[in-house]
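FW: tagging you since you asked about this chain on Friday. Here's the raw sequence from the shared folder, copied in full. Didn't touch anything.
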Amino acid sequence: MSKSKKTLIYSLSIVVVIIVGLLIFGLTKVKVYSVNGPSMKPTLTNGQKVIAVKGTLNIYRGDIVIFKEKNAQYISRVIGLPGDQVVIKDGTVTIFNQASPKGFNPDRGQSYLTKNEKTAGNINLKLTINQYFGLGDNRSNSLDSRDYGPITKSSIIATDARVE
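HL: got it, structure written out here
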């Protein structure tokens, strides 16, 4: 067999292995979820499909996560991380932590909220090591951590949700 034919067979073998690997990864690590309700408007709308990575490798502020709470699945934006103090007062969210002891508004400058939308509630909560605070983008019409409390890491079933 010629050297060029061996190289071609070797190259095709590598391509096949990569494709099979990606298929296996896609079938086991990625899932399509359907948005149910208006809580994530305007980012996500009722009935819209999102693709999310199963599991909880890295969760960052601003990520959209899917989690289970009382035998139902919910979708929410992560606003508070483990160790954060989450304060909602006078329509504004403020996060206090070691990096920002004077606090900051995680919504400032973000495009996911409707202009001038206020966050209802009166909350002052310190998150523990495995807790996250989630809010819907449609703050006036959302069931979220203001209603059911912090999201535990063990209840998060998928992260990095993106529009299909």
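FW: The chain has one domain: 30-163.
HL: agreed, and Residues 3-29 form the longest helix (27 residues).
FW: great, closing this out.
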